[in-house]
Amino acid sequence: MKQTHTAPAAFIGAMETEVRLLIAALENCEKVTLHGVDFYTGILEGTPAVVVRCGIGKVNAAITTQTLIDRFAPGCIVNTGIAGGVGAGLAVGDVVIGTKLAEHDFDLTPLGYAKGNVCEGDKTKPTFFEGDAALIDSLVSAAKTAAPDRGVKTGVIVSGDVFVADRALKKKLAEDFGALAAEMEGASVAHTAAHAGVPFAVLRVISDLADGSASDSFTDFEEETAAHSSAVIRAFAKAARI
Ligand code: ADE
User: Fold this and answer.
1) Domains identified in the chain and CATH numbers
2) Ligand 1 pocket check: which of 60, 82, 90 to mutate, most ligand atoms within 8 Å of Cβ?
């Protein structure tokens, strides 16, 4: 994305491993603490940026995204980090860029709503928050630049306050949402950014396959896959340089 004004690009991750390398790469880095959350401003690969660790889960992500918007007025928000692979054919290390985000644990089904419908739009369908097309294109290019040989897919990412490590739930997420990947913050960042009219996108690298082996795989690959998500963000920021 070309920056046309000084509004920074914002990068939000849940865990230390998902933001550490981005914070370390910020030039002229300054820390601002708001409501107990540390926001890091600076220049990332030539682009004005804010990087923040929100903590795990949808509430933490929503709180921090709103503070980010109110205090820093970012031109765009990218949620970065790792995810469980849900779609067929995904492997650990693949990059998934979310075109549409849904809250898979939002459940008003006893009241006649589809799973994931947050009381908005057609009640027979999940509510999907659509990522910004230009940001998605830029992230796809950045992923290919950062690692030409890795798999890169675009599609639905679902979020919920649950670490998915169960084949039955994984199957439901694929069936009910057409999900490619599952994590715990992206749809919440998306919901909050959409509410405020700020363009957003979600970039995730697959750390596990959201099945019975997910916790072992997550432990083994968290560091490497989170580092790769940061490498893609750096390539994205470099291409966006003014
Ligand atoms: N983040 C990484 N792997 C995940 C999983 N399996 N479920 C939820 N969030 C994740």
Assistant:
1) 9-239 (3.40.50.1580)
2) 82
